[in-house]
Amino acid sequence: MALDKATVRSIATLARIRIPDEDLDGLAGELTNILDWIEQLDQVDTEGVAPMTSVADMETPMRADEVTGGAGQDQILANAPDPQGPYFTVPKVVE
Amino acid sequence: MSPAVNPAITNVTATATEIALAVRKGRVSAQEIVEATLDRIERLDGVLNAFTHVEIKRARKTASRIDAQIGAGENPGPLAGVPFAVKNLFDIEGVTTLAGSKINTAYSPATADATLIEKLSAAGAILMGGLNMGEYAYDFTGENSHYGPSRNPHDPNRMSGGSSGGSGSATASGMVAFTLGSDTNGSIRVPSSFCGLFGLKPTFGRLSRAGTFPFCASLDHVGPLARSTADLALVYDVAQGHDPRDPVSTDRPPEPASGAVARPRENLRVAVATGYFHTLAKPEVRAAVERVAKALDTKRTVEIPMVEQARSAAYVITATEASALHRNRLRERPMDFDPDVRDRLFAGALAPAQWYTQAQRLRALYRQAFLKLFEDTDIIIAPSTPTIAPAIGQQTFMLGGKEVPVRANIGIFTQPFSFIGFPAVAVPISCVSDMPVGVQVIAAPWREEDALSIAAMLEQDGIAKSLVAEPEALNV
Questions:
Q1: pTM
Q2: How many whole angstroms separate alpha carbon B454 and alpha carbon B260?
Q3: Is the complex ipTM higher than 0.90?
């Protein structure tokens, strides 16, 4: 299956990518190649096979779950322009 | 004035192992090595165009530190004084990481070295600079529309192979003892084949990619190119180890392979890949595979199932992942891409997600089938490339009786193995044609040691040999 320039332009618009006119021919060729590969892939029955996103097992690295000091209340409130007791004050937004 | 050059070291056939020994024994200083290396780069790189950046100051500074260590009776490490260079997608502190592109020249310089450069430097190796490559590693030719092609030292009118073209060119010309490259679909093994080098693409996740500019996260590997199996194993051993900065870096302990190269493992069960790998190879490439099979005394063959589909799936995953990575650059600066790369990235950006998922399903099936082959086999032999290096600029060649585009077809024998992360050593086979050509030795995941054992046996038998291209042979 070969794609023509008009089809490629319309796919590009849908993908929100502006393609320079002089690139449309080359691009139609590349997309047609991909279509050929997809036809090849479709020859294999992959029903029920989970997609393999990576050949390596990846785990999100976890840090140790420990109680740490953090900053004290005084230090945190020191950043606020107008603290009232243990509270931040903010401008009134609802009348 | 540069210090006098020790004649023993201007011998470019010196391998990393030989240089490190000479430096550690005090027979030559690291400074002499660096000056001889700079001389050679100065003399050859005008023709070969392998380097995009030479680290003169840093190399001299490192060399004097190593010489001071030797003077103080300390051991600078197993790679003491060995000059090396890296594909310019590796971060070098203070240098902008180009990844072969024009667009990246606008980015800030790297603030630290890539993990592998750190490890090699800590072992005494001396970084000489960054190397030319195909733009954003999307290439098998070694050509680059912004920086010019890196050239093949065995015939500068021919391709170095890509995308680690400068790595192939710099190592085969003896400008440095070894180089680092990256391999997503074949970018270490293709230049190794065209330039006549030993190249290692390890198991996916074995060597850290931290501090490298990516291409396709789920397919990218890094590894060395060298002129002997001992050097390949030595660099590989130094480079191993878990790195939390690369999410796919394995936490397996390092499994050193230098021992296996010195005393290759015997009784490995070897089979030669047939079908696709025979039909699509040119006669000189088939001859190289036959020489290897004969030397290893094997008549066993293996037909790899779904190999054409595997190649298609590798293409689809590459195009889609790479275009996702470059999407903003494609929108903002499309005309600053290499035209060949731009077309493929655009195509990837327009591919529906369902195609990508189908390719990943195929990958799971194919990997399962491939693992099964290794139940009664330890090693599979296959050619590295279907041809010797084509001429620079060549657009098509004949493959299996059909005229096909060069760019898309150089990697047909490498893609099916990197796609599922299996380790492979590219081995240069001597005396089958005027130009070198490579054969891949493929092992099961995490069995680099087996592949390197076979490569070392072939080297000891004289079947595999990496020849340095001498300057007088540069016919330009």
A1: 0.91
A2: 9
A3: no
